[in-house]
Design brief:
heterodimer; A: 165 residues; mainly alpha; Four Helix Bundle (Hemerythrin (Met), subunit A); B: 368 residues; 3-stranded antiparallel beta sheet; two-stranded antiparallel sheet; 7 strands
């Protein structure tokens, strides 16, 4: 059962991320990215990481991507403003690089010794467990991240203010 | 195992049936309540064999009309997105109800099960995550219709929903701090306890509205803004934008947007009832029976009766909160777009942050 659910969502994640790259229409590409995030959240649920799954949906699918769509709609691109359809040298190079990366990935997987999954305790992935970890073992990275985000917010305000003045 | 699966199916069926029918009936409630408030007669003209039942057949007539109408898609619209949008508006609203408990645990044939479809540890965060997906329905509808009114409605809606989602989340942090959990069943259960003052039981239940009054008002305002109803209905503003993001919709797809809005009202009411009004709890009615206030007397009642009374109490609270939302909708005039943005970011957001700070200080003080 669990395996079947995994394969379904893994297939959706792969298919939608591929569609996102191939799509020329920016809104359709953005919606495919939303679908990718959604199926990744489903995979997190299968890994017992409920909190992470919900945050993935809330932050990426619910907020970041809505903002993306908002910007795309504001630009209101016409057909000829979108990327021209010519198959340039960049396309060929991109495909070649993707194939190379796939082979590298396969080699990496073959080199990694198989590890049998260890069962986790019931509290794993709960809000309480993650909160405790964030405020004990990972306190310094957590605080540094918050300072980083604060700097980004201040930067955004300064940039927006300069254009307004 | 098959018994549990059957019980789960029964719970899903029950919630689906109640929420869907309640949302359908709200179409009638909206017309009737607005009529009463404006001194009109209101919906009363759909008869079956001459019986009108104070207009209760109107939702039925609406459904038949919507089913038989032409499904119109504008010529230059993006057909896939245009069809997808109403689904994305309706489905998340329904899904959010999965974590809202509509009763205490029930014991049937020696088995105990809780009356909630999914009792998730992340609880209310799941509601937010799913409800935030509903924004796509609105944004896509506005974009795919190839109509300037729709696009403007979609743009307004996306900015408004993003802004008020943040306020909604932050106002509830105080509630989480007070009850020490995100799980909706645990929050509801904790509200069955009583305030003690200097070791003396006051017999006043610890409902969210008493422990977090500011959070209740902030959350209610943000939730009405999130469901895009008056006074926050700039996204469909019929006097400026025809019908906003769903101008180019007809038939069943139009009805789906309509239903999505009403289902959202039911979900918000369920959430507010659980977080601020004790969920299924009835004051002084505990698991073992009715506790007479200020005495030690306990009137024992059968467990199944208490559970059923709880289910009834939950839906009664939901109905009262729906009435409250409808009253607000037909009382206040529409805000301007800039007023909505200013209210969200400059009033509600700082107030909700202050609420978190004060709650933290009080909790520290009480633990002393």
């Amino acid at each position: 059962m669990e395996q079947a659910v995994f394969y379904v969502f893994a297939a959706i994640a792969l298919g939608s991320s591929l569609a996102m790259v191939v799509q020329r229409n920016p809104v359709a590409a953005a919606m495919n990215l939303v679908l990718t995030m959604f199926s990744l959240a489903a995979l997190f649920v299968l890994l017992q990481a409920h909190f992470l799954a919900v945050i993935q949906l809330l932050v990426y699918a619910g907020a970041v991507m809505v903002l993306f769509l908002f910007v795309i709609m504001f630009l209101n691109l016409t057909e000829d403003q979108m990327m021209p359809g010519r198959r340039s040298i960049l396309h060929v190079a991109g495909v070649a690089l993707a194939i190379y990366a796939l082979f590298q990935l396969r080699a990496l997987i073959q080199r990694t010794p198989p590890v049998s999954a260890k069962p986790v305790d019931a509290a794993f992935g709960t809000t309480k467990a993650i909160g405790r970890l964030l405020f004990s073992d990972y306190l310094l990275p957590f605080e540094i991240t918050s300072v980083l985000i604060l700097a980004a917010i201040v930067g955004a305000v300064v940039l927006a203010k300069r254009r307004l003045d | 195992m098959p018994l549990e699966a059957a019980f789960m199916a029964a719970k899903i069926g029950f919630v689906f049936f109640v929420v869907l029918n309640l949302a359908g009936l709200l179409g009638w409630v909206e017309r009737k309540q607005s009529a009463l408030m404006q001194d009109r007669i209101g919906a009363n003209r759909a008869p079956i064999l001459g019986i009108t039942l104070i207009g209760l057949f109107h939702p039925l007539a609406d459904a038949i009309k919507a089913f038989t109408k032409e499904d119109f898609i504008p010529a230059r619209a993006n057909k896939v997105m245009h069809t997808l949008a109403p689904l994305l508006a309706l489905v998340p609203a329904f899904t959010a109800f999965a974590v809202i408990p509509f009763g205490d645990t029930i014991t049937l044939g020696g088995r105990t099960a809780s009356l909630v479809i999914a009792d998730l540890d992340v609880g209310v965060l799941f509601v937010f995550a799913i409800m935030s997906l509903a924004a796509y329905g609105v944004v896509l509808a506005g974009w795919s219709s190839w109509n300037n009114f729709s696009l403007l409605g979609g743009l307004r809606a996306s900015a408004q929903m993003l802004s008020y989602e943040i306020v909604m989340g932050l106002t509830l942090v105080g509630v989480f701090m007070t009850y020490g959990s995100l799980q909706l069943t645990e929050i509801a259960r904790a509200q069955g306890e009583f305030f003690t003052f200097g070791g003396v039981n006051t017999w006043i239940p610890k409902w969210g509205i008493l422990t977090q009054p500011l959070a209740f008002f902030l959350f209610m305002a943000a939730a009405i803004a999130e469901s895009k109803r008056a006074p926050f209905d700039v996204a469909e503003a019929e006097s400026e934008l025809v019908a906003g993001y769903f101008t180019e919709y007809s038939g069943m797809k139009f009805l789906m947007f309509w239903m999505g809005e009403f289902v959202e009202i039911v979900v918000i009411s369920g959430l507010v009832a659980t977080l601020f009004f004790g969920g299924w709890q009835i004051p002084w009615l505990a698991r073992d029976g009715f506790h007479v206030p200020f005495t030690q007397i306990v009137i024992a009642l059968p467990a199944i009766l208490i559970t059923l009374a709880g289910v009834g109490a939950f839906w009664t609270k939901v109905l009262v909160l729906i009435w409250l939302q409808m009253t607000v909708r037909w009382t206040l005039p529409r805000f301007r777009y800039d007023q909505i943005m200013r209210m969200g970011w400059k009033m509600l957001l700082p107030l909700s942050l202050a609420n978190i700070f004060v709650t933290g200080a009080v909790i520290l003080l009480l633990q002393g």
